[in-house]
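Below is how a single chain appears once it has passed through the pipeline. First comes the sequence as given, then the structure the pipeline wrote out for it. We keep one example in the README because the format questions we get most often are answered faster by looking than by reading.
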Amino acid sequence: MIQPEFESAHCDFCGSLRSCVVLEGPDRLLGLPGWFRVVRCVDCGLLRQDPRPTARTMMFYYPPEYEPYSIAIDDEPSFLKKLDRRYGMLKRRRAIERYCSGGRLLDVGCATGNFMYEMARSGNWEVEGVEPNAEAARYIQERFGFRVHIGDLLSVNLPENYYDVVTMWDVFEHLHYPTANLEIVARILKPGGWFVFSIPNLRSLDLKLMGKYWIGWELPRHLYYPSMELMESMLSRFGLYIREWKCLSGAYVAFLLSLRFWLEDVIGKTFLARFLVYIAGSLIVRVGTSPLFYLITILNKSSIITGFAQLQNKIGGHHE
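Resulting structure:
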């Protein structure tokens, strides 16, 4: 595998090179080598990783065991995990269908295709995906038969004014050039089409409680951390306007990961740390704390928040 190389980059939103350090840390999730840094743009406030792995060598930090590259939900051996994963995909579909009941959907960063499958099985959607990992893309094609463009939005050729919905689930923060990606999203959406995306929630309760151990940082794979206000400014540059922010799920799992990182730092990667995380993740604890995490979710305070942005009508290739 190609070894990672690093680069310093200006702020993708305002172009400034001026920044101040917010935090530093290791790869807490996978334990891959390196020491990484998050900075805040002095001019616009956007948080970013700097220096960062180059786009050419970034795949070093996405090994096969990276969780989003999971098997098809129907092939999941654990019945309870299968139900949990299916419910998560169903919540995403229902959230989208409150705004758009069907049509052409493009899932950017589609991983192994489980969301695409959920949309297709409803019978209301014609789906295709974009995925930089060639093995994951081949898995989708062989397992589900969906069309997948191997690459990213900057490298694949997609038709303009074509899609009713473009989705990015936990993808935007991984992009080296988010502004350029938003420009393409606006170009390929139909007038009135929807861009649905999720990003780390800088207003989350977990961030306040866990600080540098918060899973939302996920160094080095997360490159940008826009606040909701900054994200709205970035979107409006391309005629995309937020209609709703909503936490759909993930509060419990995100808390468990942040707790794991804290325990491993405080008492080490010991049996005790693993045991405490196991207890916290047990079914009885999950059921017992479900009202709390439900409240966190409906108050939009969980670690991941989803934006529903609509493209205003275009006239002569430009936005109104």
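The first strand starts at residue 6 and ends at 7.

See the next section for the split statistics.
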